[in-house]
Write a structure and sequence with these properties.
By secondary structure, the chain is α/β, with parallel strands linked by helices. The protein folds into two domains: about 200 residues, Rossmann fold; about 180 residues, Rossmann fold, CATH 3.40.50.2000. The protein is built from 19 helices and 13 strands. α8 crosses α12.
Length: about 400
């Protein structure tokens, strides 16, 4: 048994960022599991946030953190330090501990170990799918982060292999901590709640096919829409395609494609207003099935969210997606419009015939992924303590 309780310093910026992304969901899941570990006395931890954003942490109802550290360094200044590889020891200002950086960027920490989460290397593997400014920034800063950190956390085995491939990073210094899903938030919602949320976002149809993700090249909406418009009209008339995707970039062609399909009488719904996180479980729950067709993904949490709401999934058969979707998904070749069309039609027929046929595999896959083991792996990578130290009695039984 270690003599000293390890202390973890968490870069909590993804939790308070105005744009709460998949990285934010990942950070939330790990931090909530850290809070559980702290409640058991296995660790202590603190949360580092931009000075003026600390109050945004209240909504997470964390009970066992040691303190919130309001960083005296503005985030834009720290990003500038990272961009130009200025070796400024941030821990001299923020305190000692094992630093966990959940979003690609590991600040220099002299005398303090750190781990950085590299979610994917999209900016290297498929650079045309990443906005130019963001791509150049990651190309400049990630190598500096890898130099600063003691080791790396990957969100999938696929991402681990990609980090090794593109950076030559040692295999024994990369730890895989999969994402999971918050089952307290994502669960099957009532027909009343589903109806209320559908009306809120102008979905006036009993049935629909759902896809979720920013409207950008990597998400492959162009091929999905083309495949959808090739379906028999009796299917498309009954099942609108609902695309929940805000922001994004380089999406003018897809936007024009959606408009053209609408003019041709197809029911493609892309809510103009931002869809709140609190409304997503009802949208997943109300869908006939969920479609996830990216051409590259570090993990992809959307299939897990759909599963948790009881919704079957069509998913891409490439990159990390099979790790995320498991044996419960119906897989497609994301580069084949014909295959996407065929599987869409197949899913309509099969979900109408017996929607429960996926239930057992969905249940098994959800049970195979949990935030607690991923937090234990992360804590072990950070501290050098054996992972068994962080496991509770349930894990050991």
């Amino acid at each position: 048994m270690p003599k000293k309780t390890p202390h973890i310093q968490v870069d909590a910026f993804p939790l308070v960022d105005s744009h709460f992304s998949g990285v934010g969901h990942y950070t939330q899941g790990i931090v909530q599991a850290f809070d559980e570990l702290a409640g058991e006395g296995k660790i202590t931890y603190s949360l580092i946030t931009p000075r003026n954003w600390a109050d945004r942490l209240k909504k997470y109802d964390l009970q066992h953190y040691k303190k919130i550290i309001r960083s005296p360094i503005p985030n834009r200044v720290m990003r500038g330090f990272m961009k130009y590889h200025w070796n400024v020891p941030s821990n001299l200002l923020l305190g000692k501990g094992h630093y966990w950086f959940p979003s690609f960027l590991a600040w220099p920490t002299w005398g303090s170990d750190s781990s950085v989460v590299i979610h994917d290397v999209t900016y290297l593997a498929v650079p045309d799918c990443v906005e130019v400014g963001n791509r150049k920034y990651l190309e400049q800063t990630v190598p500096f982060s890898l130099k600063n950190a003691k080791n790396v956390i990957a969100v999938s085995q696929f991402s681990k292999e990609e980090i090794m491939k593109y950076y030559g990073y040692p295999e024994d210094k990369i730890f895989v901590a999969h994402p999971s899903v918050d089952r307290k938030h994502f669960y099957k919602r009532s027909s009343e709640e589903i109806h209320k949320v559908k009306v809120k976002y102008d979905i006036f149809s009993e049935h629909y096919i759902l896809s979720v993700g920013n409207v950008e090249p990597r998400k492959n909406y162009g091929r999905l829409i083309e495949a959808y418009t090739k379906l028999p009209r009796n299917i498309t008339d009954k099942y609108p395609l609902v695309i929940v995707g805000a922001g994004g970039w380089n999406n003018e062609e897809v936007r024009a494609q959606i408009q053209k399909a609408k003019e041709d009488g197809f029911k493609i719904i892309n809510p103009k207003q931002f869809v709140l996180d609190e409304d997503m479980p009802a949208l997943y729950s109300g869908a006939q099935f969920f479609v996830f067709t990216p051409i590259y993904e570090g993990f992809g949490m959307s299939p897990l969210e759909a599963y948790a709401c009881g919704t079957p999934v069509i998913a891409s058969n490439i990159a990390s997606v099979p790790e995320a979707a498991g044996d419960a998904a119906v897989y497609i070749d994301p580069f084949s419009v014909d295959d996407i069309q065929e599987k869409l039609e197949y899913m309509v027929v099969e979900t109408e015939r017996d929607r429960s046929q996926w239930d057992e595999n969905i249940k098994k896959h959800l049970e195979s992924l949990s935030w607690r083991p991923s937090a234990e792996i992360t804590a072990a990578a950070l501290t050098g303590y054996p992972v068994e130290y962080f496991q509770n009695k349930r894990n050991n039984s």
